[in-house]
């Protein structure tokens, strides 16, 4: 495993936060300096080309900063320390060259998230969600460890490069299944809706972003063009679009939406060409940006267990939030000229170019079906009349106020989703060079 100074800095902040009162402002300054130095220290033949590893790490750190700033505490508490553990595990996972080190990073990430989900012990839904996540995460970690052990027995090494050169061996299949569990790709998705529903908004913001980024960062290196991934792709597209149709709870709907999104990402990876992996990475980036933005809007307007009917109260509270929510949902649905359309178009173009005709047709059909319930959310928010209990709750309960830093983050993310087609080079160029370094 290759350690870099920004990983050491994160570890230093983590240790310091255990004994000192580290403020959120100090953390933001340190992370800003870290990302700046990381960008300036990128070295390559051309001088401006960023490689895959720093690209994924920058993305992980940026999302981690957003997650920590979504917490209203001014000084680092136990939740922020656990979030730091997840960030550290995520960036170490991308640096690892050994399967046992990868296992340790995944375990650090999973155990930290398990504790975060279970922090509110007085709520049975939190305990239920944490236990489901812990049990199924333990099963997937066991499969990963078993695959790593078989890899060592058969090859005498646990290096990742040894796994890449193998064909469909038992150890490669076990490791593939374990990582698909972590990504919640179908048919290993069954834990996701319940865990999403039982998590609070801040934990969900972490759970739906950093594990996906870090695991996909190593997944694209290990399994490009694997036919077993194509099976998971097809199942994810079908299960994700059908499972969300009758959902009445917003978080469960987001869970099935992420399964559909994972299907598109895996389709790009499965193409195994440079264009396919690049399209899958762009889709992942835009999806994560949109997911974070939607959760910030939900966290600022409705409660921890929102139902779809509660979206109708957004208009009475804040027209700007409702407009933002509508744009974000239309982007996830793939309506042009928003970022979601750009990412879907890239994935489908790459798939059709490489003659993945059946997968492309299935992806288009599933995107159309998913678009129905996305547009339904916009209809509820704009046109559905408020229920009586929502009106009384608005009268009796004080409205939430969005913090300035959250409003700034939301504005920046919304701008990137809305105007990505105006200047796609801002997103496309770093991903282009990062994926290029994999080949």
What is the element layout, followed by pairings?
Elements: H1 5-19, H2 24-40, H3 52-70, H4 78-95, H5 99-117, H6 124-155, H7 160-164, H8 170-183, H9 192-198, H10 201-207, H11 210-222, H12 227-243, H13 250-270, H14 274-299, H15 314-317, H16 319-333, H17 339-353, H18 357-383, H19 388-396, H20 404-418, H21 425-436
List keywords for this structure.
single chain; 439 residues; 74% helix; globular
User: What spatial form do the alpha-carbon principal axes imply?
Assistant: globular
Low-confidence segments, ≥5 residues, pLDDT <50?
A: none
How far apart the termini lie comes to: 20 Å
Largest sheet: none
Overall residue-averaged pLDDT value: 82
GO molecular function: NADH dehydrogenase (ubiquinone) activity; oxidoreductase activity
Catalytic activity: a ubiquinone + NADH + 5 H(+)(in) = a ubiquinol + NAD(+) + 4 H(+)(out)
Protein name: NADH:ubiquinone reductase (H(+)-translocating)
EC number: 7.1.1.2
Can you walk me through this structure?
With 439 residues, the protein is mostly helical. The chain folds into 2 domains: 1-145 and 190-214, no CATH class; 224-438, no CATH class. The protein contains 21 helices and no strands. It has helices at residues 5-19, 24-40, 52-70, 78-95, 99-117, 124-155, 160-164, 170-183, 192-198, 201-207, 210-222, 227-243, 250-270, 274-299, 314-317, 319-333, 339-353, 357-383, 388-396, 404-418, 425-436. α13 (250-270) packs antiparallel against α18 (357-383) and α14 (274-299) packs antiparallel against α17 (339-353). The longest helix is centred in the N-terminal third of the chain and has 32 residues, at 124-155. The radius of gyration is 21 Å and the shape is globular. The model has no long low-confidence stretch (mean pLDDT 82).
């Amino acid at each position: 495993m290759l350690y870099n100074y920004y990983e050491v800095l994160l570890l230093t902040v983590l240790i310091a936060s255990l004994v000192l009162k580290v403020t959120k402002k100090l953390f933001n300054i340190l992370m800003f300096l870290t990302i700046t130095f990381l960008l300036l220290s990128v070295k390559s033949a051309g001088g401006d080309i960023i490689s895959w590893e720093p690209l994924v790490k920058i993305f992980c750190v940026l999302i981690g900063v957003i997650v920590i700033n979504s917490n209203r505490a001014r000084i680092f508490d136990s939740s922020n320390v656990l979030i730091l553990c997840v960030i550290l595990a995520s960036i170490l996972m991308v640096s690892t060259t050994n399967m046992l080190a990868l296992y340790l990073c995944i375990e650090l990430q999973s155990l930290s998230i398990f504790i975060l989900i279970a922090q509110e012990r007085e709520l049975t839904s939190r305990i239920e969600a944490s236990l489901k996540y812990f049990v199924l995460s333990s099963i997937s970690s066991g499969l990963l460890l078993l695959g790593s052990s078989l890899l060592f027995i058969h090859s005498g090494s646990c290096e990742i490069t040894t796994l890449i050169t193998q064909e469909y061996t038992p150890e490669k299949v076990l490791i593939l299944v374990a990582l698909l569990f972590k990504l919640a790709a179908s048919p290993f998705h069954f834990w996701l809706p319940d865990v999403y529903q039982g998590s609070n908004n801040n934990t969900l913001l972490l759970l739906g972003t950093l594990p996906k980024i870090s695991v996909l960062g190593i997944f694209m290196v290990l399994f490009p063009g694997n036919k077993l991934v194509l099976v998971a792709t097809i199942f994810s597209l079908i299960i994700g679009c059908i499972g969300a149709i009758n959902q009445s709870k917003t978080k469960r709907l987001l869970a099935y939406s992420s399964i559909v999104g994972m299907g598109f990402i895996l389709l790009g990876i499965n193409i195994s060409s440079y264009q396919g992996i690049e399209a899958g990475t762009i889709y992942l980036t835009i999806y994560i940006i949109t997911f974070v933005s939607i959760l910030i809007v939900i966290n600022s307007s409705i409660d921890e267990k929102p139902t779809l009917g509660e979206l109708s109260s957004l208009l009475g509270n804040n027209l700007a939030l409702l407009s933002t929510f509508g744009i974000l949902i239309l982007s996830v649905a793939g309506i042009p000229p928003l970022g979601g359309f750009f990412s879907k178009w890239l994935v489908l173009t790459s798939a059709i170019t490489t003659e993945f005709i059946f997968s492309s047709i299935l992806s288009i059909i599933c995107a159309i079906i998913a678009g129905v319930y996305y547009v339904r959310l916009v209809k509820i928010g704009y046109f559905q009349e408020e229920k009586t209990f929502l009106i009384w709750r608005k009268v009796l309960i004080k409205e939430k106020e969005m913090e300035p830093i959250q409003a700034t983050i939301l504005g920046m993310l919304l701008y990137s989703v809305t105007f990505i087609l105006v200047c796609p080079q801002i997103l496309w160029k770093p991903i282009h060079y990062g994926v290029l370094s994999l080949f």
